[in-house]
Amino acid sequence: MILILFIFVCVFTFMYYFNVNKNYWKIRNVVQVNYAAWDFLFGKCSLPEVYRNIYNAYPNENYVGMYLNTKPVLVLKNLEDIRAVLKDSHCFHSRGYYVNDKEDLIDNLLLMNDYHRWKLIRQRISPVFTIKKLKSMSRSIYQCSDSLIDYIKNYQCENNKSIFEKFNFVAIGSAIFGVDFVTKNALQSPIVNALCTPLPFFQRCLFSLKLIISIQFPIVLRVLNIKIFDDYKNLILEIIQKVSKYRHETPGKRDDYIDVYMEIQNYESIQDASGCKINIDQFVASQAFSFFVAGVETTASAVDYTLLELANNEHILEKVHKEIDGIFHKYKQLNYYNVEAMEYLDMVLSESLRKYPPIGSMQRVATEDAILPSNLKVDKGVYVIIPTYALHMDPKYFSEPDIFDPERFSADNINKIKKYTYLPFSGENRICIGAKYARLHMKIMLAVLLREFTLKSCMYRVTTFEPNLFTLSSSKVEYELIPRHKRV
Ligand code: HEM
């Protein structure tokens, strides 16, 4: 089977370089860029960086056409077009990742395509992130943070980002799923290690190959009945069932995802008026999986980049330390309200998400023929790209974009930011459902870390990111965490 997959990828890549669709955009009077994804295909940079290069190369265009393998792709630049695509749940609902519909774990994911199923799941999941539940989650995250500090002190040679990923599994597991990791050694637990150990090289290649096929040749996925994540399904289902059994036996609400699950567990399935129906156990396991997939790497990257910028900007670090020390001095520990009150830290985080948006671009596929506000007809099946990273680094919207300046997000300045130019959590219909949780989680991590440590610059600057499809990630970021002499 691997051989068949490999041959498919080679044949279609070959076809690309012979320009199967070579005049698609020219015929439509759209500026066309060929071979744009070359650097990405050869592992030199991420796809969001490719979009940024295209975006910058045509300052006066509303959009630029390109190809990914044989598929026509339209990179959007006009803010009205971006707004229309993000708002249009009729033509631009789908992200265009296709899955094998026999693979329950990801077929029922909130991240996926089918509109009715997405709406049903989103309605059921939204109560997980109410203010009341976020208050209780902030307690859990804070309780887990001892294990983070302990681990950093004992494993100083491990890369910071990989430590943050471990912590994120622990904190998301505890805050959202009620898995009790609240011990000092939580980051060394066998489950966390199993989840964080990178796959062996061969399995990693196979996994990437399957992902590429799911985007480029979904039909192959169905015909060969390839399942991408099935190995994880039983593990996740088992964890959720164990936790809910334990919670049935120990009464009392914890205000988390398991509470929502227990409320609907008595039904066999959930259903909406259109007749769309999802089995409860599949629904629960899928969403648990999506929270880890969507939340662990993104938050670890954001915290890592924020610390890098603080290490390189001493005056900003000083102000952050002052704010955090003031809060710990007054309240001794963190809760939802005093975390919300750290306004300067919030500005620093917002600026970090501007300069390094963990999701550097968003993709939609036209499910019907559509007309954009700038008057271009987009045929059904065409991919459109919202180039988040390019927008965040456009000097038209953010002056001197390479400079790390939290003041862009001060109370006086924040309203000057144009709508749809700042999209770290996306916008409109499919905006990140975990955005509020993520901000809380990252602020607690940063506050706890900076209470304990100060930072030393290693003069490291991010020049390029790893070759990923949507994320801007780097595992090489360098700065030093140094214990503070005077801890509040
Ligand atoms: C810094 C952290 C995070 C960033 C920057 C981020 C960013 C995003 C973005 C840009 C999207 C939309 C993608 C698109 O439209 O194609 C998204 C969707 C999503 N995110 Fe996040 N995210 C973060 C953390 C989290 C966390 C912690 C969770 C869960 C606990 C989460 C769960 C989700 C889910 C389930 C979706 C899909 C929503 C839907 O389609 O309705 N994210 N995120």
Provide a quick synopsis of the model.
By secondary structure, this protein is α+β, with helices and mostly antiparallel strands.
Secondary structure topology:
Layout: H1 2-17, H2 24-27, H3 38-41, H4 47-57, E1 63-68, E2 71-76, H5 79-87, H6 104-107, H7 115-125, H8 131-154, H9 160-177, H10 190-196, H11 201-216, H12 218-223, H13 230-249, H14 257-264, E3 269-271, E4 277-279, H15 280-312, H16 314-331, H17 336-340, H18 343-355, E5 362-365, E6 370-371, E7 377-378, E8 383-386, H19 388-392, H20 435-452, E9 453-457, E10 479-483
Parallel strand pairs: 2-8
Antiparallel strand pairs: 1-2, 3-4, 5-8, 6-7, 9-10
Bound molecules: protoporphyrin IX containing FE (HEM).
Protoporphyrin IX containing FE binds at residues 95, 110-111, 122, 172, 290-291, 294-295, 298-299, 302, 358-359, 362, 424-426, 430, 432-434, 437-438.
The overall strand count is: 10
Strand percent estimate: 5-15%
The CATH homologous superfamily is named Cytochrome P450
The spatial strand order of the largest sheet comes to 1-2-8-5
Structural class: alpha+beta
Please state the average pLDDT score.
Answer: 85
- CATH architecture call: Orthogonal Bundle
Q: What's the structural domain tally?
A: 1
Number of helices: 20
Q: Say which molecules are bound, naming each kind only once.
A: protoporphyrin IX containing FE
Q: Report the C-alpha radius of gyration, rounded.
A: 23 Å
